[in-house]
Amino acid sequence: MTGLTAEVVVDGCAPQTPALAPNGCLLCYVLAPISRAGDHLDTQLWLAGTDDAVVPRRATADTATESRPLWSADSETLFFLSDRADRGTPQLHRLTPANGAVTTVTNWRTGVIDHLPLSDPHLVALLAEDEPTEQDARRARDRDDAIVVGERESRARLRMLDLRTGRVTTPGVFGDRHVVELCQRPGGGPLAVLTWASADNDHGPRTGQLHLFDPTTGSAENLGPVAADARSLAWWPGEDGWHLGYVALTPPVLQAGTAVFDLAVDSRVLRNRTAGLSMCPTQLCQTGGAPLVVFADGLNTTLARLDPAGLSTLSHHPGRLDNVTTTPTGTEIAAITGTRYQPPNVHIGPLTGPLRRITNTRPDLDGIALGTQQPLAYRAADGLDLDGLLVLPVGRSASEGPFPLVTIVHGGPYDRYADRCQLFWFPSAQWLAAAGYAVFLPNPRGGQGHGHQFAASVAGRVGGQEWTDILTGIDLLIAQGIADPDRLGIAGWSHGGFMSAWAVGQTDRFRAALVGAGVVDWGMLAATGENGQFEAALGGSTGWSGIGPHPHDAVSPISFASRIRTPVLILHGAEDTNVPLGQAVYLHRALRHFDVEHEFVIYPREGHSVRERNHQLDVLRRTRAWFDRWLRP
């Protein structure tokens, strides 16, 4: 067995977005590096046979960012996006697997955002922003570039590409709306088109509308508004005509569990098909008949079929099942999944399982010792059933405790820990387990995998019961002799960073904390974050809700900064638009004011996630050094 290093963690590659050919013979996937060494993320397209007859091989040779592989209806052509000609500006390309020939299809000056090959073999639908005009070019030359909010804002528009002529046309049917997603009815026919009022993440997801677009006539029909954050469109036939479904947040709360919504196109009757379930749908997969539904189900994943009479469970899978793709017959799926001790890979198999692995993208992890990972099931103070994971120090058993314990809270909060390999560039269980720590990964209320009410229960009440849910789990591990009560640490990124900042303002039990891209003031986040209205739902109010104090003040860690005595490590990306850097600056100034031991690290050029290799290495090493300093002196 060899030891785990920071380089091993960040220097690997991960498969993404598998795409099964309609005939089920070939599969394409993207291989992406975990970290970026230069200015661009260089990804690769790979092809594999579904019957093991075609060993996975790289399909393209250029240095480029390649993405969104999608097959033509006859399975003869693979379309994908690549910026091989002009880095940072993706264009549509097509690959003929039979001879390996790659052809550039578009030369759209602003680049292509997305694409959908249609049943008509001569047509491809594109999403792309408007090309610059002569006036735009003049303004750029003259630096007459004052930004008037609401004017000349970028919009993704539907374009139609005729492969016979190379001509791209723009149907003028959706006004100034931003086009988000497309899905063609099985067997040909209209496109379902999802649009937003603008591309602004704070506004757009709350203004979604569904449309039908006829690619033959160019006409469109508005089907009306959709629930917030709608995505994952899918068609299916019913006795009453065609149905169109999507996954979206359950109204009326913006911080809520997801549901599958079913729209009967002819009658306009809309139904929530997953109401009351203790699982959360994450994806709809279109087939020629009833669609497939992927559910986050506690620590694991359930695959079901949305039959007319209800859901039919097909199979259960450990951990996560991501980027599920299927053929029109819906008899076989491919997905990204892994195990407790193996990172995610492409797997394929029947709907009823099991799935077999067809890629091994991280052979460098073979032979590296990992900590024993086990599920936890316990009850909250009010009796609510909870779950989570415990990862023990490498080579140690629970009976050898107590150990220094670091609790890492997940982000979201509408996310979850699944029973999969917990090794990432951000503070992760196996990275700390390799240094001798036990790690607790709780799934408190507010997260995914336990139904709508479980998720919605934290809206306006963050830091309340979700915090006591976490404490209950820590106390359980102390009572079991696994955690040393005098050597407790807490960490998290994004909403997990909020919980870490919240924790140290509520108690002195923790000897060290890490706040990664964390929220410290909900009012400021609602005003400046890219998802402001969703954050306002969590915090409970906004600064313009009237004269304070406001409800969000009572759940903001900054309000309790005077109580903090725990040493805090603050990590934040300089260009984070999700949780802007000002949140970290606010916490840093408060800790400095109250003379609290802390380090404040800003990563230039980074957003909400850290991408550059040297920065990821720094996060890993600095995280371990910080907890070593305070928990293992």
TrEMBL record:
InterPro entries linked: 6-blade_b-propeller_TolB-like, AB_hydrolase_fold, Peptidase_S9_cat, WD40
Pfam families in the cross-refs: PD40, Peptidase_S9
Keyword annotations from UniProtKB, A to Z: Hydrolase, Protease, Serine protease
Residue ranges of every copy of the Peptidase S9 prolyl oligopeptidase catalytic domain listed in the record: 429-631
Identification of the protein by name: Prolyl oligopeptidase family serine peptidase
Species in which this protein is naturally found: Micromonospora zamorensis
Lineage: Bacteria, Bacillati, Actinomycetota, Actinomycetes, Micromonosporales
